[in-house]
Amino acid sequence: MLVLSIISAVTFILALVVMTIASILSKKTISDREKNSPYECGFDPKDSARLPFSLRFFLIAVIFLIFDVEITLLLPVASTLNYTNFFSWISTSLLFLMILLIGLYYEWSQGALEWAE
């Protein structure tokens, strides 16, 4: 128990020293024009965080996440072709792709309705 306490204390002190050194070395007083400019989403970093933002930007971000998850889930499908029945593999893959495409169409149509308003 004593060894565990000593190891924990040493680990805590070492982490504290590393974080302190990093914070001292990372202090930069030079103001960069790019860091003070608005981000890609159009927010001004100096304004209030409570301002509403564009729904179009939000929907594009959601569609990006859907495609990101889709790619992550589709990559193993190609590698399982050698280990499964071809009919089972093609039916499962097509069903999965259809669900994703229907979700994409639904998201796109909802976005088109929001943009029309």
TrEMBL record:
Matches recorded under Pfam families: Oxidored_q4
Alphabetical UniProt keywords: Electron transport, Membrane, Mitochondrion, NAD, Respiratory chain, Translocase, Transmembrane, Transmembrane helix, Transport, Ubiquinone
GO molecular function annotations of the record: NADH dehydrogenase (ubiquinone) activity
EC number: 7.1.1.2
Residue ranges the record marks as coiled coil: none
Reaction it catalyzes: a ubiquinone + NADH + 5 H(+)(in) = a ubiquinol + NAD(+) + 4 H(+)(out)
Transmembrane annotation, as ranges: 6-25, 53-74, 86-106
Keyword rRNA-binding appears in the UniProt entry: no
Localization terms from the record: Membrane; Mitochondrion membrane
Cellular component GO terms, alphabetical: mitochondrial membrane; NADH dehydrogenase complex
Membrane topology: Multi-pass membrane protein
PANTHER family listed in its UniProt record: NADH-UBIQUINONE OXIDOREDUCTASE CHAIN 3 (PTHR11058)
Function, as annotated: Core subunit of the mitochondrial membrane respiratory chain NADH dehydrogenase (Complex I) which catalyzes electron transfer from NADH through the respiratory chain, using ubiquinone as an electron acceptor. Essential for the catalytic activity of complex I.
Homology family: Belongs to the complex I subunit 3 family.
Protein name: NADH-ubiquinone oxidoreductase chain 3
Organism name: Maja crispata
